[in-house]
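Hi there, hope your week has been kind to you so far. Do you reckon you could talk me through the fold, stretch by stretch? Thanks so much in advance, here it is.
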Amino acid sequence: MNLKARWAAGETTFGVWGTIDSSFTAELICSEGPDFFCCDQQHGVVDYQTMVSIFQGVRASGSIPISRVPNHDLMLIGKTLDAGALGVIVPMVSTPAEAEALVSAFHYQPAGVRSYGPVRAGMVLGSTQPAGLTADVACILMIETASALESVDAIAATPGVDALYIGPADLSLSLGLPPTFDQQVPEYQDAIAAVVAACERHGIVAGIQCTNGDMAARYAAMGFRFVTVASDANTLRSAVRGQLDAARGVERTAVTGGYA
């Protein structure tokens, strides 16, 4: 089942953020059952060919393969969809006009500007018809700027947008705060609450990047239904650090940082 179907059924989906250029790492992670796995083409070290290999492992494990693209390149969004992504996250969306233009990259003519050539997507989705290639794919736009907050209601109302996804680090910077996750100051909490409210008003899903399961559970309780639990790199670092500290008798805080 894809993300859109799960959201339509009222489910909250929990996934893992992938920044490591290793299909085996992704396969190991997805064997534990995350709902989705996101290949980060923006800040990770994942190139296009590695992303395709990762998608193969993710799909075989039963998780949903998605990707974040690095920018607003409409052709790259289409190429990522052609690789078999069942969702694409687009960063730094600040205006309704940007949102409308980005939605067009998910659809073929005359509804959009996506070029037809579903080399892998046709096999993965079981259809080569335009409707079959687009119906199950989630369009997810990131809210991470002050201007996006000012226009969040209009962005959420854009036809074709399925979810808004908060990038906590950049959103914090835009509010004059340190680029950290899980800010408890009122201006940050009010900002993310506004995103959830806008999504609820317009019948789409609110998402957010988290650094651990406890944080993910708290934000899910606030109404977020597309929640990243952790990243592969930081989870690996934290696990190795924990084992080394145990061996050396050192007490330190686990690695919980990340980028979004």
